[in-house]
Design a protein that fits this description.
There is one protein chain. The chain is mainly α and 106 residues long. It has 2 domains: 6-64, no CATH class; 66-95. Helices cover 53% and strands 0% of the residues.
Length: 106
Amino acid sequence: MNENGEKFSWVLITNPRAKREFDFLVQEVGEEKIIDARPLLGARKAFPLNLARVFGVKLPEHLQYLPRDEALERLKTMRQAFALRSASSVREARGSGPEPESTDHA
């Protein structure tokens, strides 16, 4: 999920939160310093949080959370999935599944 291009392909962007953290670091310290920080990571993996530690930058708490529009979109998707699952369960409970075989003994 690394969307940072070749310049930062070594930075581990594993989820939307990491992307927000990385974008913040780019704004805060600049691209050149991030490139220069690569050898300073040592044995640590190149997650944005570890880069922030190298720079002594505290990542703002709000980066942990989804922006409102993204959160609302996820809720909408979950509600739709739940509604489909619930409707399917109701149909099964009512017996509108496959037709039973005829019991006529003619």
